TrEMBL record, chain A:
Keywords: Cytoplasmic vesicle, Endoplasmic reticulum, ER-Golgi transport, Membrane, Protein transport, Receptor, Transmembrane, Transmembrane helix, Transport. This is ER lumen protein-retaining receptor. It comes from Nothobranchius furzeri. GO terms for biological process: protein retention in ER lumen; protein transport; vesicle-mediated transport. Belongs to the ERD2 family. PROSITE patterns: ER_LUMEN_RECEPTOR_1, ER_LUMEN_RECEPTOR_2. GO terms for molecular function: ER retention sequence binding. GO terms for cellular component: COPI-coated vesicle membrane; endoplasmic reticulum membrane; Golgi membrane. The keyword Zinc does not apply. Pfam families: ER_lumen_recept. It is found in: Cytoplasmic vesicle, COPI-coated vesicle membrane; Endoplasmic reticulum membrane; Golgi apparatus membrane.
Length: 212, 10
């Protein structure tokens, strides 16, 4: 464990908690893409099946359980409890255009052709594009609530910190995972546009509205 | 090592 991975995990946890609290306290999921949240629940489900097969550390197990629990709770709030506030008309990204290519790629490019490894690879690839429905929704509505931008900031920051963690681990441990790194770079690049708007607008107290 | 055998990252 290194400081970059730890702050990355805490940033990820902060994003997940911010979103869940925002929806729960405001009793509304307006502006939130339910499709992205379903994709994240799928990412965690396919990645953390090893909860059933191996124990790595209390930290590892605890965080995985929290991530899975919060992501399913968020999906539940959006599609069941607070369904009336779900803005389906703007959440129209065709997720099948993500899942099918990602699923195919996971079969073609992986470290080992075993079920757990294929699912892990699918999860890594899917996570890199899972935010697209949310970013697409913001571009359609033309704006985002400030709390939603904080959620996106921490979510984008987490994988950027993981990139530094992988540089650190390559340098000090000779460890690297090309699949995770390439997907992580793609994932972080997708946030660059948002990061620019977040820094130039939200951090100056303005509302995030598009076109910029 | 090409990849850590143990998946110790989240």
């Amino acid at each position: 464990m290194n400081i970059f991975r730890l702050t990355g995990d805490l940033s990820h946890l902060a994003a997940i908690i911010i979103l869940l609290l925002k929806i729960w306290k405001s009793r509304s999921c307006a502006g939130i893409s339910g499709k992205s949240q379903v994709l994240f629940a799928l990412v965690f489900t396919t990645r953390y099946l090893d909860l059933l097969t191996s124990f790595i550390s209390l930290y590892n197990t605890t965080m995985k359980v929290i991530y899975i629990g919060c992501s399913y709770a968020t999906v539940y709030l959006i599609y069941m409890k607070l369904k009336a506030t779900y803005d389906g008309n703007h959440d129209t990204f065709r997720v099948e255009f993500l899942i099918v290519p990602v699923g195919g790629l996971a079969f073609l490019v992986n470290h080992d052709f075993s079920p757990l490894e294929i699912l892990w690879t699918f999860s890594i690839y899917l996570e890199s594009v899972a935010i697209l429905p949310q970013l697409f929704m913001i571009s359609k509505t033309g704006e985002a609530e400030t709390i939603t931008t904080h959620y996106l900031f921490f979510l984008g920051l987490y994988r950027a910190l993981y990139l530094i963690n992988w540089i650190w681990r390559f340098y000090f441990e000779g460890f690297f995972d090309m699949i995770a790194i390439v997907a992580g770079v793609v994932q972080t690049i997708l946030y660059c546009d948002f990061f620019y708007l977040y820094v130039t607008k939200v951090l100056k107290g303005k509302k995030l509205s598009l076109p910029a | 090592a090409f990849r850590q055998m143990e998946k110790d990252e989240l």
